[in-house]
């Protein structure tokens, strides 16, 4: 059974963390398979949006399966399969699963079906639209264990949330509820579990109706200019806008509006 399931549905890619019996924690196989999934959707021009979710009804992801990966990394145990061998051979994989090494400019929707602890909360910070089930919880408990949330949270969280909210999560180690996460701005929406997949589908379908080059330019600009001086950021923004304006999609949009029909965007 694959630790990560990648399913392509037309212009959508659905990535499912698939270890519900282990709280969807990321073991060696999951590290490699998730890195491969991100690489595949990045390279597939037909994919316009990614939905990230998890199997089961209790846990989205409770972090890394340290009982498996730490002994592997420290040499206490030897790799048991080709995927674990790849994890040892490629030091970029931990950054790639968190979309740190190479950004993904396609929109990513997270459907959070339960607890997101440690690396689970860190992984969510690499997504764009986040829908949480009502019973979901979020926490970075690493300081309680003498370590730090070093998979992106110490950089991303204070840029995504107001300082006091971010530091409450980073320093306190205590979980926040879905309702609290919504009030902080950590998630976009909270829904009953039974409605979670449908809401994620709604957002994915809506994104697929937009012009893909425009969406990628918007996300690229938001990510790349976040720490730029304003003048440099506005210059970058205009470069992205100009590139999109030269596309066939930019001509198709106004044409479809005049003809009173839905636009047929091709990503070119």
From TrEMBL:
Q: Name one Pfam family in it.
A: ECH_1
According to its UniProt record, the EC number is 4.2.1.17
Ranges that cross the membrane: none
User: Which residue stretches, if any, does this entry annotate as coiled coil?
Assistant: none
One GO BP annotation is: fatty acid beta-oxidation
In alphabetical order, the GO MF annotations are:
enoyl-CoA hydratase activity
Alphabetical keyword list: Lipid metabolism, Lyase
Read off the InterPro entries from this record: ClpP/crotonase-like_dom_sf, Enoyl-CoA_hydra/iso, Enoyl-CoA_hydra_C
Query: Gene3D superfamilies recorded for this chain?
Result: 2-enoyl-CoA Hydratase, Chain A, domain 1 (3.90.226.10), Lyase 2-enoyl-coa Hydratase, Chain A, domain 2 (1.10.12.10)
* Keyword flag Transcription: no
UniProt record similarity statement: Belongs to the enoyl-CoA hydratase/isomerase family.
Which protein are we looking at?
Crotonase/enoyl-CoA hydratase family protein
Instruction: Give the source species.
Output: Seongchinamella unica
């Amino acid at each position: 059974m694959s630790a990560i399931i990648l399913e392509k549905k037309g212009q959508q890619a659905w990535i499912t963390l698939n270890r519900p019996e282990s709280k969807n924690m990321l073991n060696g196989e999951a590290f490699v398979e998730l890195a491969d999934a991100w690489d595949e959707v990045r390279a597939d021009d037909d994919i316009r949006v990614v939905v990230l979710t998890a199997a089961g009804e209790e846990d989205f992801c409770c972090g890394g399966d340290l009982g498996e990966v730490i002994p592997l990394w420290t040499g206490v145990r030897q790799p048991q399969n080709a995927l674990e061998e790849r994890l040892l051979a490629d030091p970029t994989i931990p950054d790639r699963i968190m979309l740190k090494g190479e950004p993904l400019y396609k929109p990513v929707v997270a459907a959070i079906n339960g607890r997101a602890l440690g690396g689970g909360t860190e992984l969510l910070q690499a997504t764009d639209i986040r829908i949480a089930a009502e019973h979901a919880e979020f926490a970075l408990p690493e300081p309680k264990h003498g370590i730090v949330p070093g998979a992106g949270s110490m950089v991303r969280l204070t840029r995504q949330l107001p300082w006091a909210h971010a530091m409450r999560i980073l320093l306190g180690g205590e979980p926040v509820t879905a309702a609290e996460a919504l009030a902080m701005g950590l998630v976009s929406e909270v829904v009953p579990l039974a409605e979670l997949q449908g809401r994620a589908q709604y957002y994915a379908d809506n994104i697929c109706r937009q012009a893909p080059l425009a969406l990628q330019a918007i996300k690229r600009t938001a990510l790349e200019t976040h720490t730029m001086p304003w003048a440099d950021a506005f210059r970058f923004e205009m470069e992205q806008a100009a590139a999109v304006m030269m596309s066939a999609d930019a001509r198709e949009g106004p044409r479809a509006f005049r003809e009173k029909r839905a636009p047929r965007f091709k990503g070119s």
